[in-house]
Specification:
The chain is an alpha+beta fold. It contains two helices and four strands, in the order E-H-E-H-E-E. It has a four-stranded mixed β-sheet, with helices on one face. Strand 3 and strand 4 form a beta hairpin. It is globular.
């Protein structure tokens, strides 16, 4: 899955991956996507929850080439 912006949040603990997502989301145009690479297992629940609270679209999860979970978000506003 391609993304307009990829955030390397490996090694960051909750809630840092979603804080980084919130800080950087405006860097992509509306309709664009951000991928969050995160090794913290809490990100699996945190990223979709952040999307619901912020009115953004959670596209889904895949894996980076090194096997790191990658969470994709589409900017809707």
């Amino acid at each position: 899955m391609d993304a307009d912006l990829e955030l390397d949040c490996r090694g960051m603990l909750c809630p840092m991956p979603v804080i980084e997502l919130g800080r950087r989301l405006a860097e992509v145009p509306i309709g664009g996507t951000v991928a969050v690479l995160a090794t913290d297992v809490a990100a699996r629940a945190d990223v979709p929850a952040w999307c619901r609270m912020r009115g953004q679209e959670y596209v889904g999860e895949d894996t980076a080439d090194d096997g790191t979970p990658r969470y994709v978000v589409r900017r809707t506003s």
